[in-house]
Specification:
heterodimer; A: 264 residues; alpha/beta; D-Maltodextrin-Binding Protein, domain 2; ten-stranded mixed β-sheet; 11 helices; 23% strand; B: 234 residues; mainly alpha; MetI-like fold; 76% helix; globular
Amino acid sequence: MMRFLATLLALLGSMAQADTMRLAVTTSFHNSGLSDVLIPAIKEDIGLEVQLLVVGTGQALRLGQGGDVDAILVHSKAAEEAFVADGFGTHRREIMYNDFVFIGPKADGAGVKDAITAREALQRIKARNAPFVSRADDSGTHKKELVLWADANLEPATFGAWYKAVGAGMGASLNTASGLGAYILADRASWLNFGNKAGMALLFAGDPALFNQYAYLPVNPERHAHVNAEAATALEVWLTSSRASALINDYQIDGEALFVFNAQ
Amino acid sequence: MSDIWAGLEAAFWLIVTLDGDLVEITARSLHVSLSALIIASCIALPFGTWLAIRRFRYRRTAIAVLNALMGLPPVVVGLIVYLLLSRTGPLGVFGLLFTPTAMIIAQVIIITPLIASITHQAMRELWAEYHDLLISLNTSKRQRIMTLIWDGRRALLTAALAGFGRAIGEVGAIMIVGGNIDHATRVLTTAIALETGKGDFALALGLGFVLIALALAVNILIHSLSQTEQEGRW
């Protein structure tokens, strides 16, 4: 009986494997809507069905470490390099970038709009103790936010109640910020695609410190023999092809380009 | 208020145009929750009945534990099932994580105690009534359980429907073990969570109304099939 059950379960599990692969991506990549353009194109060009697991960068790395996905596409360089150094991924391949922006209430009580640098924008928010929503979910955006605070010589752990660590995805955090009239760091793509912009506006962007590089990391088949390394390689070839380049560079929301293809 | 009207409108158009994605995720919701319901019922109905008629030393403790398990937090169940099914977990070799099968497993764990507990409550009263008769007829334990299940079928239907209600509306566990993969493991509740995250409240609410309508339809269907609540048949 147990053996029959085990066989049955194994069969059910392997059914999904033919010509499909699992890719863990960050919420910001998925919320941008670019995946809705790329996934069907991949299916059409190389017949590969890519199943997306939309999670924060922290969880994406965990999924890769456990071998529960075949590759990951994330944006947190330090964590990615550690992932490869620890042998969980075979290598790291840069694909494209977009940028982070500061979103806040239209009234802009803290004067973020007039800041020259990202550092100054954060210092202005701190000086006014203006409400600020932090992703606080170990995502790439959250890690970026922490780096920026450190750049500004400020320590979020010492902040008062105005600093709200919500521990949610990009969209949910934007909803919270919108409800509270708070400032928030978001990636441009998620912001442009966000449906509930009431009372909020893009206040600051353009500092090179807000650069957001996405990289593709196949999971190491030497660690997890079951991963679909062949499909992961095929996807990497496609993601760095001229076809992907055209699709990524031409992707626009409201006439605004979101991503810049920069794979070498 | 305008958001709620927009939600109703979105639900209306989704249903009227028979949106392909909606049909797919609704079918998957039904597949996952009904499978979980059938498996859980096969375990919980006999178990709850057995618990009602059998006297043993730790019966009270067993019942207390069962009642407490009714309140199992789905998100914890999801996390434990996730860790068990993950490639690094003890059941990782089956590759079940992020499949509908994983979602069914999680839901079975969540609803089995609920169905068993309600079954036990109903069967205890029925057993008090049938006790002398069944003992005097010198029935076997198996016969007693089968008799009680058959004669108490309407109460058991309520237990099963309560389990179905909990399963179809559940999001915490299946989000973790299913991963909300488009065209693979996305169901109504995880789609609602996703659309809310995108700030598209109208679509999220529209899906919510579809979910409520679905739960209602399944309940009415099962009641009409089993001919309860009709004149002369209470």
